[in-house]
Amino acid sequence: MANTENQGRKKQLLQEINEVSFAVDDILLFLDTHPWNQEALDYYREMAGRRKELLRQYAVSYGPLTIDSALDTPGDTWEWMNQPFPWQEGGCR
What we know:
single chain; 2 helices; mainly alpha
């Protein structure tokens, strides 16, 4: 039962990361044509910070999802290559 709950949390966290990442990508496109829009800049800062935190949470619990969070794993070792790739059994999805 605990493994099912863990997989559910992992899936939920991945969904949140995908949603926030989409928002970051979308607002970056807007900022390309509206670079002085303060509301857009504030939203970008908020979403980029949220994405960073979600990636950190994922790395701590399941291993790094992106190279940006490779150092957020517990311990003092380089864990990036020690986990299954997304396309392998047990990967990030």
